């Protein structure tokens, strides 16, 4: 049975009781930050609480592992829009320990595609067209590797402004403890921001 009827029933009551009023804000991030993070369910409420963020404080961009796999994909587009259109002045990339993208078995995942009915010819066609599954389904050995990959891709992006700092963190998904990996990896970041 689908979860949709229960969701809609709750939603109707939520709106009728005006519970949404506690979350009213606008589209601009009050703390002027954009956060690229993992879609892990443990981070949905924990991450904002661990950073003392409330609704409206930040733009959250989520994907598997907080990893940018393509410089012109939807996650990078979201970061650019957050900066240029919505006023974000800093970007945080936050990975986490125990991530499902750690040591991801790309071949095993492709086999699961086939087991669920994806035609192996479709996968072969994609590979022949230059969409390599090992790049598209990129994982990492340690979350730090994934975070630094994304930080560097953002900073090197030809459309990303030089004066916006990009920071890297890893969070513990049970305690919320943050580990700073890099406070804007560029050596000249402070002079660019202050000068």
What does this entry look like structurally?
The protein is an alpha/beta fold and 195 residues long. It folds into two domains: 25-104 and 139-194, Carbonic anhydrase (Beta-carbonic Anhydrase, Chain A, 3-Layer(aba) Sandwich); 108-132, no CATH class. Helix content is 38%, strand content 15%. The chain is built from eight helices and five strands. It has helices at residues 4-16, 43-50, 74-84, 106-115, 120-128, 133-136, 143-156, 189-194; strands at 33-38, 58-63, 90-96, 166-171, 178-182. It is globular and about 50 Å long.
Query: What are the secondary-structure elements, in order, as H or E?
Result: HEHEHEHHHHEEH
Which CATH architecture of the largest domain is right? 3-Layer(aba) Sandwich
CATH topology of the largest domain: Beta-carbonic Anhydrase, Chain A
Radius of gyration: 19 Å
Largest sheet: 5 strands, mixed
Please, how many helices? 8
What percent of residues adopt helix (DSSP H or I)?
Answer: 25-40%
Number of strands: 5
Share in β-strands: 15-25%
Poorly predicted regions are 188-195
Provide the domain count. Answer: 2
- Helical/strand content category: alpha/beta
Mean pLDDT: 94
CATH superfamily descriptor of the largest domain: Carbonic anhydrase
**The top level CATH class name of the largest domain:** Alpha Beta
Approximate shape: globular
Q: Strands across the major sheet, in which order?
A: 2-1-3-4-5
Query: What is the terminal-to-terminal distance?
Result: 59 Å
